[in-house]
TrEMBL record:
<feature type="binding site">
    <location>
        <position position="29"/>
    </location>
    <ligand>
        <name>[2Fe-2S] cluster</name>
    </ligand>
</feature>
<dbReference type="Pfam" id="PF00462">
    <property type="entry name" value="Glutaredoxin"/>
</dbReference>
<feature type="binding site">
    <location>
        <begin position="84"/>
        <end position="85"/>
    </location>
    <ligand>
        <name>glutathione</name>
    </ligand>
</feature>
<dbReference type="GO" id="GO:0046872">
    <property type="term" value="F:metal ion binding"/>
</dbReference>
<dbReference type="InterPro" id="IPR014434">
    <property type="entry name" value="Monothiol_GRX"/>
</dbReference>
<dbReference type="InterPro" id="IPR004480">
    <property type="entry name" value="Monothiol_GRX-rel"/>
</dbReference>
<feature type="domain" description="Glutaredoxin">
    <location>
        <begin position="16"/>
        <end position="81"/>
    </location>
</feature>
<keyword id="KW-0001">2Fe-2S</keyword>
<keyword id="KW-0676">Redox-active center</keyword>
<keyword id="KW-0408">Iron</keyword>
<feature type="binding site">
    <location>
        <position position="59"/>
    </location>
    <ligand>
        <name>glutathione</name>
    </ligand>
</feature>
<dbReference type="GO" id="GO:0015036">
    <property type="term" value="F:disulfide oxidoreductase activity"/>
</dbReference>
<feature type="binding site">
    <location>
        <position position="21"/>
    </location>
    <ligand>
        <name>glutathione</name>
    </ligand>
</feature>
<comment type="similarity">
    <text>Belongs to the glutaredoxin family. Monothiol subfamily.</text>
</comment>
<dbReference type="GO" id="GO:0051537">
    <property type="term" value="F:2 iron, 2 sulfur cluster binding"/>
</dbReference>
<keyword id="KW-0479">Metal-binding</keyword>
<dbReference type="InterPro" id="IPR036249">
    <property type="entry name" value="Thioredoxin-like_sf"/>
</dbReference>
């Protein structure tokens, strides 16, 4: 299985996927930490995270897969939502909670 196929499998295999530096319990950068907090505060109980620091192939290829250059990267129902800034904007507007509720009901 190629790294792109592995990324695709992660994105399609879970309703909410955050590719981040570190883990949800131990984020390794401020942007990843803020994204995790926003997701949890918005009700994400089925949050699946992928630590890009543990998988250099994923870290190198995810930006090509998603056309998004930075981490974290949030995918909901197989669709790239964006990075930390977009996640925070969606959280503040209440839209993130709606998207998460919808994804977790699938």
């Amino acid at each position: 299985m190629s790294v792109i196929e592995r990324i695709q499998a992660e994105v399609e295999g879970h309703p909410i996927v955050l590719f981040m530096k570190g883990t949800a319990q131990f984020p390794m950068c401020g942007f990843s930490s803020r994204a995790v907090q926003a997701l949890k505060s918005a009700g994400a109980s089925q949050l699946h995270t992928v630590n890009v620091l543990e998988d250099p192939e994923v870290r190198a290829n995810l930006p090509r897969f998603s056309n998004w250059p930075t981490f974290p990267q949030l995918f909901i129902q197989g669709e790239l939502i964006g990075g930390c800034d977009i996640t925070m904007e969606l959280f503040e507007s209440g839209e993130l909670a709606r998207m998460i509720t919808e994804a977790q009901q699938q």
